[in-house]
C-alpha cells in the first residue's frame, strides 16, 4: 500500500479524464462542450448515482492520499506540507461535490441548498489548485522547470476561467471552457506528481 500512495497524484490525473468520459457514455445526448462535468451527477440526470461512484468518491480518496504523502514525507518542507494540505482540501471538496449534487438546470435563479453547497465546494476546489501551484511558482525549493510549468498551468487556468464566465453568460459552450480551466489544474497535478516521484 505504501508503495502505491506516491503515485496517487498521477493516477488521479488520468482517472478523472477516464471517469468523466465513461460516465458520459451512460448519459444519452450528453455534450462535453455545452454541459458542465457536474451535470453528470446532477439531480435527475441518468448518471446521478453512477457519476459520484466512479468519479468523486475514488478521486477524492486519491487526492487525499497524495496530499497525505506530500505532507507526511520524512523530509517534507513547510511548502510541501502546505501543498499537501491544498491537495487534501481538494479531495475533501471532491467528496462534498459528489454527495451534494448540483441542480438539473445550471442556470436556475433559485438554486437548492444542495446545489449551493456543491457550488461553494467547487469554488474551494478551484482555489486549492490555484494556491498549490502558486506556492511552487514562488518557492525557490523546486526545480526551475517545475516552477515555469506551474506558472504556465496557472496562466491557462486563469485564462479559461475568464472565458468560462463569458461562455456561461452567453449560454454557449461553458463545458468546453470548464474542461480547459480545470484541465490545466489537473495537468499541473500530473506534472507535480511526476516530479514528486521521479
Descriptive account of the structure:
This protein is mostly helical and 198 residues long. It has one domain. The protein has helices at residues 8-24, 50-72, 78-99, 113-138, 144-170, 174-197. The relative contact order is 0.14.
What average pLDDT do the residues reach?
96
- How many domains is the backbone divided into? 1
CA-atom Rg in angstroms: 17 Å
Separate helix tally: 6
- Please estimate the helix content: over 70%
Overall form: globular
Note the main sheet.
Answer: none
The SS-based structural class is mainly alpha
Strand segment tally = 0
Which features does this protein show?
6 helices, single chain, globular, mainly alpha, 70% helix
Care to give the gist of this entry?
The protein is mostly helical. Helices cover 70% and strands 0% of the residues.
Amino acid at each position: 500500500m505504501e508503495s502505491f500512495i506516491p503515485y496517487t497524484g498521477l493516477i488521479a490525473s488520468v482517472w478523472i479524464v477516464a471517469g468523466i468520459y465513461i460516465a458520459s457514455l451512460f448519459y444519452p445526448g450528453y455534450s462535453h462542450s455545452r454541459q458542465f462535468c457536474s451535470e453528470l451527477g446532477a439531480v435527475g440526470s441518468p448518471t446521478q448515482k453512477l457519476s459520484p461512484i466512479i468519479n468523486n468518491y475514488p478521486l477524492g480518496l486519491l487526492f487525499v492520499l497524495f496530499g497525505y504523502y506530500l505532507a507526511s514525507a520524512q523530509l517534507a518542507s513547510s511548502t510541501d506540507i502546505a501543498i499537501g494540505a491544498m491537495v487534501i482540501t481538494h479531495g475533501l471538496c471532491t467528496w462534498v461535490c459528489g454527495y451534494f449534487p448540483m441542480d438539473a438546470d445550471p442556470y436556475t435563479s433559485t438554486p437548492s441548498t444542495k446545489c449551493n453547497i456543491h457550488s461553494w465546494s467547487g469554488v474551494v476546489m478551484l482555489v486549492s489548485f490555484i494556491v498549490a501551484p502558486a506556492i511552487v511558482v514562488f518557492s525557490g525549493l523546486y526545480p526551475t522547470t517545475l516552477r515555469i510549468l506551474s506558472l504556465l498551468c496557472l496562466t491557462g487556468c486563469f485564462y479559461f476561467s475568464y472565458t468560462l464566465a463569458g461562455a456561461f453568460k452567453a449560454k454557449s459552450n461553458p463545458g468546453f471552457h470548464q474542461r480547459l480551466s480545470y484541465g490545466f489544474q489537473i495537468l499541473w497535478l500530473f506534472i507535480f506528481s511526476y516530479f514528486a516521484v521521479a
